[in-house]
Specification:
single chain; alpha/beta; TIM Barrel; Rossmann fold; Immunoglobulin-like; 3 domains; 8-stranded parallel sheet; 6-stranded mixed sheet; binds 1-deoxynojirimycin
């Protein structure tokens, strides 16, 4: 009787395990290993630690890491300082633990490893998917050369709030563009074969909705309807999963009142069951423990909640390690749940080929030949050029002549420390080309009169908050008055002023939210004084977010937005300023007139009381007394040294059957004096539907090169799913009726065609 009972239990547990691992194919090697593992060893695999001494990316670092690895209590490490240290750690795991299970080595390679590319918001402004993919491939090649096999990227959080410092790490406001970029990055990192030592596991983050935190204040709460999530925020995560992302990182925020890290609806119902995700889920840095502060219970309670919700690996928190055994003995979790989580972690190791060769990624010969090569730097330069957005070109002063007499001024003109941008912990500022050096490289015959002109900001207390990773805001010993006089003297000696101004790198990024996103006062003074000299002024503007620049925009200045351009900053800026490359970037997040307009984005709804136009006020309409509805600069906006004319928009059918594609064609002519590239954008408006539609939404784009005078016909295909949306039952459907299509060079595009869906 007893034997039979035991047998039944074994069978039942076996069935649950098989059912949960369901449709997916089991890996015999992993199954065999699981059979040998003790409960403690399984729990150990769910523990991800950071030993410190490397790149600290959070407030705490793990202790006694070596002893924990030896005890079989660690599944992976991240932020390890060097390949030598990784080798030491792998040796302990492989040679000194009972089963010799290799470790995963993670890292944050957000925009390049040692070859730092522009910040992701900048890269997204290139609208060039091949280029973005190649930056991810290079990042993977360099990082794996140094032993890393798991990357905490891409960050695909949609954000419509530039107060949030981490808007810099993503692709901006739009889910269609964000999805395309998510695919490019995942396929770039992972390639076709994860056992290839030049590829690494991607980790799509932060699941989910992190970019929608209230007030743009980092780590804050999110509350959002399902209809909004599905239609506007979730697509890029799903695109990354569909592209094969091997892992997912949870976000710090709550979703529907439950922190993402313990949210079963999110991690199991949606991610695994609806989307079919088969990889593993890791928490963010101590986000498991942070559920205590969120108000969900003590460490044991939140750890059990997270495991049951579908979390597989606990980053730094050691909540799983310290409580799961107890929870199992108290019947609060099941062994099958622990085994499933462990299986997913082991499967990732298997996919990387680590069971065949735990040292596959530790190859001393690689760093010298793969990292920071001339070819990689060339791609960084190209990526930076293409990420810049020309916001204004007063009197077509740009491009400058290479023989010009230039006052090169501003606190960011000679600042290697601020070129790489936020979240570049693996890059080295010493490798960055400053703007002044780039000018000298590209235009050796120009006369450069340099002066700092002002500090980034004069407030010591603020500087201390920004300088956590090194001296980004360097307050000069000279007085602000003296700095200004020097800049004005440089301007007087020159024909044109180039002022490099904006944010220091750590004024955006994680835990760098701002309520005032204007150019700091110290620099505003400098800009105004320079303009008052009457010399033509070009602002090279750096930032990790859209800024509020209404005042500067009204001045007679030219503005080139360069984000934080990465390791080749100075060369790339000079390439564009001197016309070796004609700027082609377009904004991927709307630039508000002021903070009070936030959120403002291109796909806003009409409302029941739309303003007569976005420029005019009318009582009892949806508008402001003190500002226009239109933003300062719309999504998709960006100028070129040449001009483009759009005409002859056509749809290939006026009546479209369900399931059919629609081809939209348009003529684009380069009508100016330079060859150049244009991002042709297509926006769709679903005129009538069962839930309120956005005014218009990006649904297609193509970046094209046109020689001066050249005309091309561009055809963009709207696929059947581009006409679909999630209705109030969260069904993804297209509803019959009229559609309007707009094509142009930004989201204000007005060239229109229509069709009807039958
Ligand atoms: C916290 C950040 O939110 C996340 O993006 C990052 O990957 C981890 N720290 C690890 O450094």
């Amino acid at each position: 009787m007893n034997v039979l009972k035991t047998l039944l239990i074994v069978l039942a547990v076996g069935t649950t395990t098989a059912l949960t691992a369901q449709s997916k194919q089991q890996i015999p090697e992993v199954e065999a290993l699981l059979k040998k593992m003790t409960l403690e060893e399984k729990i150990g695999q769910l523990n991800l630690l950071t030993p410190g001494g490397g790149v600290a990316t959070g407030a705490v670092v793990s202790e006694n890491v070596e002893a924990k690895i030896k005890a079989g209590n660690v599944g992976g490490l991240f932020g390890v300082a060097s390949p030598e240290k990784m080798k030491m750690a792998q040796d302990i795991a492989v040679k000194n633990t009972r089963l010799g299970i290799p470790l995963l080595f993670g890292s944050d390679i957000i925009h390049g490893y040692k070859t730092t590319f522009p910040i992701p918001l900048g890269l997204s402004s290139s609208w060039d998917m091949e280029l973005i993919k190649s930056t991810a491939q290079i990042a993977a090649k360099e990082a794996t050369a140094d032993g890393i096999n798991w990357n905490f990227s891409p960050m695909v959080d949609i954000s419509r709030d530039p107060r949030w410092g981490r808007i810099s790490e993503g692709a901006g406001e739009d889910p269609f563009l964000g999805s395309a970029i998510a695919r490019a990055m995942v396929t770039g990192y992972q390639g076709d074969d994860l056992t290839d030592v030049n590829t690494m596991l991607a980790c799509v983050k932060h699941f989910a909705l992190y970019g929608a935190i209230e007030g743009g204040r980092d780590y804050n709460s999110v509350d959002m309807s399902r209809v909004k999530m599905f239609n506007q925020y979730l697509a890029p995560y799903k695109a990354a999963i569909d592209a094969g992302a091997a892992s997912v990182m949870t976000s710090f925020n709550d979703v529907d009142g439950i922190p993402a890290t313990g949210n079963k609806w999110l991690l199991t119902d949606l991610l695994r069951e609806q989307w079919g995700f088969e990889g593993f889920v890791v928490s963010d840095y101590t986000s498991l423990n942070e559920m205590i502060a969120h108000g969900l219970g003590d460490l044991q309670a939140v750890s059990a909640l997270a495991l049951k919700a579908g979390l597989d690996m606990d980053m730094v928190g050691e909540g799983f390690l310290s409580t799961l055994k107890k929870s199992l003995s108290e019947g609060k979790v099941t062994e099958a749940e622990i085994t499933n989580a462990c299986r997913r972690v082991l499967e990732a190791k298997y996919k990387l080929g680590l069971f065949n060769n735990p040292y596959a990624y530790i190859d001393e010969t690689r760093p010298a030949k793969d990292i920071l090569t001339a070819e990689n730097r060339a791609v960084a330069r190209k990526a930076a050029q293409r990420s810049f957005v020309l916001l204004k070109n007063e009197n077509n002063i740009l491009p400058l002549k290479k023989s010009a007499k230039i006052a090169l001024v501003g606190p960011l003109a000679d600042s290697q420390n601020n070129m790489l941008g936020t979240w570049a912990p693996t890059g080295d500022v010493k490798n960055a080309i400053s703007i002044i050096d780039g000018f000298k490289n590209v235009a050796p015959n120009a006369t450069i009169n340099y002066a700092k002109g002002s500090n980034i900001l004069d407030d010591e207390a603020m500087a201390a908050k920004i300088n956590v990773f090194g001296p980004r805001v360097d307050i000069s010993k000279e007085s602000p008055e003296t700095l200004l006089e020097e800049a004005l003297a440089a301007a007087q000696k020159s024909d044109v002023v180039v002022a490099v101004v904006g944010e220091a790198t750590e004024m955006s990024g994680e835990a760098a939210s701002r309520t005032d996103i204007s150019i700091p006062q110290a620099q505003k003074k400098l800009i105004n004084a320079l303009v008052a000299t009457g010399k033509p002024v070009v602002l090279v503007l750096m930032s990790g977010r859209p800024l509020t620049i209404s005042e500067e925009f009204d001045l007679p200045v030219s503005i080139l937005q360069v984000w934080h351009p990465g390791v080749e900053a100075g060369n790339a800026v000079a390439d564009v300023v001197f016309g070796d490359y004609n700027p082609s970037g377009k904004l991927t997040a709307t630039w508000p007139r002021n903070v009070g307009q936030i959120p403002v984005y291109h796909s806003m709804k009409n409302t029941g009381r739309p303003a007569p136009t976005s420029e005019e006020f009318q009582k009892f309409r949806s508008n402001y007394l003190d500002a226009k509805n239109s933003p300062l600069l719309p999504f998709g906006y960006g100028l070129s040294y040449t001009s483009f004319k759009y005409s002859d928009i056509k749809v290939d059918k006026n009546v479209v059957a369900s399931g059919e594609a629609v081809n939209v064609s348009v003529k684009v002519q380069n009508t100016g004096n330079f060859d150049g590239e244009e991002v042709v954008q297509l926006y769709l408006r679903d005129v009538v539907r069962s839930i309120t539609p956005p005014g218009k939404q990006l649904k297609g784009f193509e970046k094209v090169f046109l020689k001066k005078g050249e005309t091309k016909t561009i055809t963009i295909t709207l696929k059947p799913e581009d006409l679909k949306f999630y209705n109030s039952n969260l069904e993804f459907i297209a509803e019959p009726g009229d559609f309007e299509v707009f094509v142009g060079g930004d989201s204000d595009a007005s060239l229109k065609a229509t069709f009807e869906l039958k």
